[in-house]
Specification:
26% strand; alpha+beta; elongated
Length: 266
C-alpha cells in the first residue's frame, strides 16, 4: 500500500490484529487490546481515534486486494460464488447496504455503503456495489446472487438478467404480477392463498420483467418466503435463499425456514 504514509502503514496492522482477536468494532474494546506501551489507558483510545479519522484510509481501496483474493477462493475448483446483498438500519440512525461473499460457513463483507437516515438506499447504490464485485470476479466465475427485500427490485432483476447471473431475490408482498393466465394479482395475495406455490413464468406487472417465483410459508414462521429466481421453481430452490444464513449470523434461526424444517439448502 505505497499510497499510505509510513506512520499509518505501521499502525494499520496493529488495529487489524486487535480486530481479529476481539472480533468487535467496539473501539473501547479494540483500544484495550492494542499491543502498545502507553503511560495511561486513555492514550490507547486517542491512538485509535487518530488512526480511524485519518483521511488517508479509504476502506474500499484498502480492502480491494483482499476482496479479490476472497472471490478467487470462493470460485476455486469451479464452485459457484454465492453473493448476498442486504440492507438494514443501525440504531435508527444509519442505513447500511452491504455485499458479502460466502466462504464455507462464514461471510466476508466485500463492499458497503453507510448513510444517515432510514434504510431505503435504492438501486443505483446497489448497482455501484455489485459493479465493484464484478470487477474482482475471476474470469468465467459462476455467481448466485441472494438478495433481501429491496426498493428497486425491478431494476435489480433487470441487472442480474442482463449479467446472466442465477438469482434468489426475496420479494415484498405488494408486487403486482401477471401470471399469464388472465389474472393480475400481488405476490402477497398469492402467498395468502396457500403455503406453497410455484409459478414458473410471471411478469412484474407494468414493468413487464419476467421471472419465476417460488412461495414457501413454513408453519410457525410469521412471513412466507416469496422468492424470485431464474429457473423453474421448486421447494429446494426456494430454500437456496437460506444460503445467506451462513452469511447472516445476526439473524435468528426463527427467521429462517431452512433452519428448522424441510430439506436444507444446498
Amino acid at each position: 500500500m505505497p499510497w499510505l504514509r509510513k506512520t499509518v502503514l505501521k499502525k494499520l496492522p496493529l488495529a487489524v490484529a486487535a480486530m481479529i482477536e476481539v472480533r468487535t468494532p467496539n473501539t473501547a474494546v479494540l483500544a484495550a487490546k492494542l499491543p502498545l506501551e502507553v503511560e495511561r489507558d486513555d492514550r490507547r483510545q486517542q491512538w485509535l481515534r487518530r488512526l480511524l479519522s485519518t483521511e488517508q484510509l479509504r476502506s474500499e481501496r484498502e480492502l480491494e486486494p483482499f476482496a479479490r483474493d476472497a472471490l478467487r477462493m470462493a470460485s476455486s475448483g469451479g464452485q459457484t460464488v454465492v453473493i448476498a446483498m442486504d440492507q438494514t438500519d443501525l440504531s435508527d440512525r444509519f442505513a447500511i447496504l452491504m455485499v458479502s461473499v460466502r466462504i464455507g460457513e462464514r461471510a466476508l463483507p466485500l463492499a458497503w455503503w453507510v448513510e444517515e437516515g432510514a434504510a431505503n438506499l435504492g438501486f443505483e447504490l446497489q448497482r455501484e456495489l455489485l459493479d465493484k464485485i464484478r470487477e474482482g470476479l475471476p474470469t468465467g466465475a459462476a455467481v448466485l446472487l441472494s438478495a433481501d427485500q429491496f426498493d428497486g427490485t425491478v431494476e435489480l432483476l433487470r441487472y442480474v438478467q442482463r449479467m446472466g447471473w442465477p438469482y434468489r431475490i426475496r420479494l415484498k408482498s405488494h408486487f403486482s404480477v401477471d401470471t399469464g393466465q388472465g389474472e393480475l394479482t400481488t405476490t402477497g395475495e398469492w402467498a395468502a392463498r396457500c403455503r406453497e406455490r410455484y409459478l414458473p413464468q410471471v411478469t412484474r406487472f407494468a414493468q413487464g420483467v419476467p421471472t419465476a417465483i417460488g412461495i414457501l410459508h413454513v408453519p410457525g414462521h410469521p412471513e412466507p418466503w416469496i422468492i424470485a429466481m431464474d429457473c423453474p421453481p421448486t421447494r429446494a430452490r426456494v430454500l437456496d435463499y437460506g444460503l445467506r444464513w451462513g452469511i447472516e449470523p445476526m439473524f435468528s434461526p426463527a427467521s429462517n425456514p431452512a433452519a428448522s424444517s424441510g430439506p436444507k439448502a444446498t
